[in-house]
Amino acid sequence: MHVKLDIRKALYRDYLNYLFETDPEGTFLVTRNNDFGKLLCSRVQYSEQAKKIEASEKTVVFQLPKARLLANAKNHFLFYSKEDQLKIQEDLEVMFNMDLDRYYLSGVKNGYMQKQIIQSFIVSRKLVRLIGDNETLKKRVYREELENIKKRTEELFWKAYNRNERIDYVLNDDRILNVNYLTPAK
Question: Is 76 helix (H, G, I), strand (E, B) or coil?
Fold first, then answer.
């Protein structure tokens, strides 16, 4: 039960090597032991006729597992609709980002330097195109950190602004301004 899918970015095609084993022809052997494997199995569609799919360097082939979910698949041609292909690519990107974030935060928590964490991530995730090129992931981490700092700064600005507005309102309230603080209490 083979099905083809185009993955736009080489980084994510490499990441598939971490998620799944391959056979000698380079077909990814999908298992339902990870979330992406389950996602691939759940999004596949069946057809009575073979769909013409033009293969390119971006095309990957998956061999889906035998599972109850795919019981009728062996009697049909399998494919992913254009919409599902886009969704799967987005899901793969999200999974990659979550994996990188989790790995990076765990590395920082354990006292490793950014360069060490990223090199370890590249090797452990079999991202062969990035070996020797940490800059791609470093830039991604850096951009995320900048975005977080920007968000925090905006949040702090708005908190300070709101507090200032409340304080100014109280100070400028007519009832308070008409009170004579210099008059002794009787």
Answer: coil
**Is 87 within the bounds of a domain?**
yes
Q: What is the mean pLDDT of the chain?
A: 80
CB atoms within 10 A of CB 139: 10
Query: Nearest-CA neighbor of 1 among 84, 69, 66, 68?
Result: 66
Instruction: Decide if 63 is inside a domain.
Output: yes
Q: Which structural domain range is residue 66 located in?
A: 2-131
Q: Is 186 exposed, middle or buried (0-12, 13-18, 19+ CB in 10 A)?
A: exposed
Cα separations in angstroms, 13 against 34, 49, 125, 165: 16, 28, 11, 52
Is the residue at 84 inside a domain? yes
Which range among 1-10, 75-84, 106-115, 157-166 shows the weakest confidence by mean pLDDT? 157-166
Summarize pLDDT for 54-81 with one digit per residue, the tens.
Answer: 778 888 999 888 877 676 677 778 888 8
